[in-house]
């Protein structure tokens, strides 16, 4: 039989050329983490995988294999059709992987190849890819990171999106984390990805940027919601002179309110994080803010939270090396920000 396997290095080179990656693992495994851009064509669904795994453990390997064939055989035409349809928007060959390059990916690769669809099985599977991502964050050169910082509500993420639309390279940490990075940061957003998927998404974006290039990002603590930035990436965010965004309280209040357009539907969800900061605000102040929340006094609530909680929390974090940019009014502030970016890029890259 021909060798239908492929190394991760060669597979990633094909990925850059538009190859289709198929994750043959169960939907639950796929949902936890996968190779960015891969589609899921599970050889066994979650229930079937449990059944076959139990049979393997309690009866034996051969019985489990036969049961897997019984489950998979009727669905093969559908799975092959799925792959053929997906391949229309990609370049061959298809790269198939499972957890560690075992029977599931081997079987699906063989079926696709027999059906005339060029396919290769990824040696080592998703486990090998995870090791690659870990190695990347442990040893690989990272691009120069220019970091937007400022008090809560100055609109750092919004500014990143504006600049990205104009062709500036960006690394939107909060976007990949599905979290705004504050006590209320997850409200109204989809669930956060798992840590493995978060790291895979960061890897995917960073390896698109040349080592000699740069990206704009925003200042984050090491934790973004329940996710953790890889240590070397976090360290890289601390190196360069900061782009410090200044804005008045009214502007910041408006930006925060714009971030929560469905806030009236999220009123109950705001209660828990508000109570969680009672120790810092004090019981009386927290109860007053809860009253504002109950009455839907959003503007007053946001202003008071910034004045009483966020501003004191972040005031001591002013970086020593910073270029200050007044972002108001935006028609003048954004050009000032671009000028500051150009100013930083005209200087040599800062080394740790």
Strands, helices and their partners?
Elements (H helix, E strand, L loop, with lengths): L4 E2 L1 H9 L2 E5 L3 H6 L6 E2 L5 H13 L2 H12 L3 H12 L3 E7 L5 H12 L4 E4 L2 H15 L4 E7 L5 H10 L7 H5 L17 H12 L7 E5 L4 E2 L2 E2 L2 H6 L5 E5 L2 H11 L7 H10 L1 H4 L1 H12 L3 H17 L7 E5 L3 H16 L7
Helix pairs in contact: 3-4, 7-10, 12-16, 13-15
Shape: globular
Low-confidence segments, given as residue ranges, are none
CATH architecture title of the largest domain: 3-Layer(aba) Sandwich
Element-by-element helix/strand order: EHEHEHHHEHEHEHHHEEEHEHHHHHEH
Q: What is the terminal-to-terminal distance?
A: 52 Å
Q: Strand order within the widest sheet?
A: 1-5-4-2-3
Question: Remind me, CATH topology of the largest domain?
Answer: Rossmann fold
Helix content: 40-55%
Quote the beta fraction. Answer: 5-15%
Sketch the major β-sheet. Answer: 5 strands, parallel
List keywords for this structure.
single chain; 352 residues; alpha/beta; Oxidized Rhodanese, domain 1; Rossmann fold; 2 domains; 5-stranded parallel sheet; 4-stranded parallel sheet; 11 strands; 13% strand; globular
In short:
The chain is of the alpha/beta class and 352 residues long. The protein has two domains: 5-134, Rhodanese-like domain (Oxidized Rhodanese, domain 1); 141-345, 3-Layer(aba) Sandwich (Rossmann fold). It is 52% helix and 13% strand.
Descriptive overview:
This protein is α/β, with parallel strands linked by helices. The protein folds into 2 domains: 130 residues, Oxidized Rhodanese, domain 1; 205 residues, Rossmann fold. Helices cover 52% and strands 13% of the residues. The protein is built from 17 helices and 11 strands. A 5-stranded parallel β-sheet has the order 1-5-4-2-3, sandwiched between helices. A 4-stranded parallel β-sheet has the order 7-6-10-11, covered by helices on one side. A hairpin with a 2-residue loop joins strand 8 and strand 9. Helix 3 runs antiparallel to helix 4 and helix 7 crosses helix 10.
């Amino acid at each position: 039989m021909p060798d239908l396997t492929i190394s991760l290095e060669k597979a990633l080179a094909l990925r850059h050329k538009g190859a289709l990656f198929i994750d043959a693992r169960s939907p639950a495994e796929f949902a936890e983490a996968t190779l960015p851009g891969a589609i899921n064509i599970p050889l066994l669904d979650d229930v079937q995988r449990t059944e076959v795994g139990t049979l393997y453990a309690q009866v034996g390997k051969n019985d489990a294999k036969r049961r897997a064939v019984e489950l998979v055989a009727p669905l093969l035409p559908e799975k092959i059709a799925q792959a053929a349809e997906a391949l229309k928007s990609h370049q061959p060959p298809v790269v198939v992987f499972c957890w560690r390059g075992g029977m599931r990916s081997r079987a699906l690769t063989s079926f696709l190849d027999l059906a005339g669809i060029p396919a290769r099985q990824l040696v080592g599977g998703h486990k090998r890819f995870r090791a690659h991502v870990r190695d990347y964050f442990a040893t690989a050169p990272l691009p120069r990171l220019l970091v937007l910082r400022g008090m809560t509500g100055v609109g750092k993420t919004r500014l990143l999106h504006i600049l990205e639309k104009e062709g500036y390279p960006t690394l939107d940490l909060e976007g990949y984390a599905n979290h705004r990075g504050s006590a209320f940061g997850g409200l109204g957003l989809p669930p956060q990805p798992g840590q493995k998927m978060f790291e895979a998404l960061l890897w995917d974006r960073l390896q698109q940027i040349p080592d000699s290039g740069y990206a704009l990002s925003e200042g984050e603590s090491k934790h973004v919601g329940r996710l953790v930035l890889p240590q070397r990436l976090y360290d890289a965010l601390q190196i360069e002179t900061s782009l410090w965004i200044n804005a008045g309280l009214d502007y910041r209040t408006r930006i925060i309110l714009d971030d929560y357009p469905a806030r009236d539907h999220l009123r109950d969800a705001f209660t828990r994080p508000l109570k969680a900061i009672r120790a810092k605000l004090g019981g009386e102040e927290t109860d007053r803010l809860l009253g504002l929340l109950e009455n839907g006094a959003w503007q007053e609530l946001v202003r008071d939270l910034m004045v009483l909680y966020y501003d004191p929390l972040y005031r001591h974090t002013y970086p020593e090396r910073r270029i200050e940019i007044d972002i108001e009014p935006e028609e003048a502030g954004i050009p000032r920000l671009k000028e500051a970016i150009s100013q930083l890029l005209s200087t040599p890259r800062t080394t740790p």
